[in-house]
């Protein structure tokens, strides 16, 4: 009996040890699993909090990029310059030289701009708000003589455009004081592509729209 009791008691002890080990292992696994789930929940919460901010910035950038619509492509006579022009505008594209100008500058998003191919050397006159694009064989060395450098603008093709600004004063050539003359110049084939935007102080300054168009310039 004593031997049986001794053997039985040893078996019970071993069984208890196994049970205890099992319980400890189960508790450990439960704690590990709970901690893992908690970390996963926290990570997901952090991601869900961060993602809207990222999306918001992306939407902001997308909105900025699509702020202006430039459906229509204007190509000069000898394809010296090509650019997308603002919706709703009307342009005259000179049939005798690489020169174009806007005859109407009313922006209408989603409306195809009109490009009339005909003879014409100047748009709008000196006293009116105007936008002119010209390929200049002589480089128009004195074109910006009265203007001051105003930084640079990078085209979508990576080329750099020099920017200039001149504010009209003292009734120059009959142009109203306060009129702004924005100039853009890019070197090409030893010559120059010149863009000028003249805006009277009584008109809406559309420089942002103009520059969105200029960025599409290609040659």
Notes on the structure:
The chain is an alpha+beta fold and 219 residues long. It folds into two domains: 1-66; 72-214, 3-Layer(aba) Sandwich (Protein Transport Mog1p, Chain A). Helices cover 33% and strands 28% of the residues. The chain has helices at residues 2-65, 207-214, and strands spanning 72-75, 82-85, 90-93, 99-104, 114-117, 130-136, 148-154, 160-167, 180-188, 191-199. It has an eight-stranded mixed sheet, covered by helices on one side. A hairpin with a 5-residue loop joins strand 3 and strand 4. The radius of gyration is 36 Å and the shape is rod-shaped.
In terms of topology, how is this protein built?
Layout: H1 2-65, E1 72-75, E2 82-85, E3 90-93, E4 99-104, E5 114-117, E6 130-136, E7 148-154, E8 160-167, E9 180-188, E10 191-199, H2 207-214
Parallel strand pairs: 3-5
Antiparallel strand pairs: 1-2, 3-4, 4-6, 6-10, 7-8, 8-9, 9-10
């Amino acid at each position: 009996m004593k031997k049986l009791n001794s053997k039985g008691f040893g078996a019970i002890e071993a069984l208890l040890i196994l049970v205890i080990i099992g319980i400890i292992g189960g508790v450990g696994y439960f704690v590990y699993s709970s901690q893992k789930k908690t970390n996963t929940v926290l990570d997901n919460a952090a991601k869900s909090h961060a993602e809207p901010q990222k999306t918001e910035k992306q939407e902001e950038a997308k909105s900025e990029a699509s702020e202006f619509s430039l459906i229509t492509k204007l190509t000069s006579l000898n394809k010296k310059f090509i650019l997308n022009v603002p919706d709703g505008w009307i342009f005259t594209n000179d049939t005798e030289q690489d020169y174009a100008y806007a005859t109407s500058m009313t922006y209408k998003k989603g409306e195809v701009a009109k490009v009339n191919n005909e003879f014409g050397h100047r748009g709008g006159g000196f006293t009116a708000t105007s936008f002119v694009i010209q390929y200049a064989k002589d480089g128009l060395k004195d074109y910006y003589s009265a203007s001051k450098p105003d930084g640079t603008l990078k085209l979508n093709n990576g080329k750099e455009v020099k920017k200039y600004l001149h504010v009209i004063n003292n009734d120059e050539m009959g142009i109203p004081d306060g009129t702004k003359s924005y100039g853009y110049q890019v070197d090409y084939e030893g010559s120059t592509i010149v863009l000028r935007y003249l805006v009277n102080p009584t008109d809406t300054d559309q420089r942002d729209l103009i520059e969105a168009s200029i960025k599409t310039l290609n040659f």
